[in-house]
């Protein structure tokens, strides 16, 4: 991947540019410290980690990069694990979960022979902060007021939740769709460029998009959000759920299609799932991790006085607990992708698992 280059530490630059960079660093430390931490991790990463700036988000006082991080196999038929964070700017904890796993992996990569062997079989791509402008501005949407998770050109087949399912009234209201028919927002176009380049033709790929959502329990959602009928390859999700639960029966995730909660217009992962699986080759499973924020609020009701308190654990020990709680599941996804041929259902088993999935998740709609 010659087009990717390693992010390098600060070097000698002209005085005027140095002053601008110093001001930008000050603004980042104040409003987007996650970007500072990410750049520090990338600057110290080993040579086999490739970094690319996919796009830049220009605000009045600052210019923010959208970073792509790649490591592992470069074989065109290697399975792929994609991790995405920061789609919603208020949900900083999603980006921090992705960054915590990246730090853990980079700390082990020089000595962990098992990890080194695993990365020869699988490709890992991360977009830790997809919406840096929204995160900088401390708002859910991107700087244009568009909710990136409602911005794909796909329409709900049934009545969607009022406002929550996506609205076209105003960017001043939450869940604004924008105008996806004229092209998705720049952040989503950056994500689409990665998916279109990386995933077609692969035998297996899985994406985990990390969010913070209301609820008492951490949830793993999968498509569809635009309709209540099962996704085309629901048996693959059931197979993945079963091997996870067999290996870690004490887990606390709730696996469900998003449609069990509400329908939405413009769901990104519905759009990408349909686009990648249209060819009929390989299997792509997009998952969304929805962290249950109600538990944090219950234990510290004062969080309701702060906008970010609705979506992020503000107490340090609770924050650390969340970051370490999801390392195992992400490690599992990497191992499952690398060895997909050992569990991905075929023929009769696929038919049986599809029936089981429909009975488990869709019995109310069939």
TrEMBL record:
Question: Could you confirm whether the keyword Nucleotide-binding appears in this record?
Answer: no
Task: Name the chain's protein.
Answer: Peptidase M14 domain-containing protein
User: Cross-referenced PANTHER family, in alphabetical order?
Assistant: PROTEASE FAMILY M14 CARBOXYPEPTIDASE A,B (PTHR11705), SLL0236 PROTEIN (PTHR11705:SF143)
Cofactor(s) the record lists? Zn(2+)
> Which species is this record about?
Marinobacter algicola DG893
Q: Which GO terms describe its molecular function?
A: metallocarboxypeptidase activity; zinc ion binding
Q: Which domain of life is it from?
A: Bacteria
Keywords assigned: Hydrolase, Metalloprotease, Protease, Zinc
What cellular-component terms does GO give this entry?
A: extracellular space
Sorted alphabetically, the Gene Ontology BP terms of this entry are: proteolysis
